[in-house]
Amino acid sequence: MKLPWRNEEHDADAAGARPAGDPDQRPAEDRPGGGGRGRGKAYTPKKGRPTPKRKEVERAQGIRRGPVEPPMTAKEARARRKAEKATMSKAELKAKRARERAERREARRIADERMAAGDERYLLPRDQGPERALVRDYVDSRRFVANIFLPFALVLLLVMLLGQAFPTLANIISLISMGLLVLLFVEGILIGRNANKLVRERFPKFTGTGFGLGFYAYSRASQPRRLRTPRPRVDVGAEV
């Protein structure tokens, strides 16, 4: 039946573009199992998209091998370890643990070296700031009686252990120790006052406590020079 809004030319074009009795307008070689020339029945047409990479699939499933961001919570860490055990063999897990330990040791070594060198990014909170750096330079440029505090403490401990065997010697060393303790106490007050005075002159806007700054100065002065961290960056006798 010819409809009034259709013309003969349109019908002829449609009949020529579509083979009679074929409901699919695609060419035979593009149909699934269509048996195009040179292609068997197992031929599968293109998906129209690239095959996703393995790491993309693992990321979508919540599993990712290789370096990843550290977990934020303990629950997330447990879930990650469980996923690793499910996707890795024992040999892979052992190698991964060994690699992580080696990376942690190397990171710790680098952090210790940078902290000893005085790098602000690696310093402990107690050592950060230009005020603390100035206090360290002040202490490192001078010699104090407090420098022998640790050796003196060891000698005092030894005297306490051997006091019963040598009572006379123990009494003499005890008197010397009491005098040295008084001297260390007075020197600690002077070191704290001088450090605070120097910091207030150089940094008028400093709002820290004087006791904390003084204790920091004295604690560094009581350490042997070779054991100080960060390492001294000025020589003894240098002007600060």
UniProtKB/TrEMBL annotation:
Residues annotated as transmembrane: 144-166, 172-192
Domain of life: Bacteria
Protein name as annotated: Membrane protein
Ranges of Basic and acidic residues composition bias in the record: 1-13, 21-32, 84-106
Organism the protein comes from: Corynebacterium sphenisci DSM 44792
Compositional bias ranges of the Basic residues kind: 38-52
Keywords: Membrane, Transmembrane, Transmembrane helix
InterPro entries reported for this sequence: DUF3043
Lineage, broadest ranks: Bacteria, Bacillati, Actinomycetota, Actinomycetes, Mycobacteriales
Disordered: region residues: 1-106
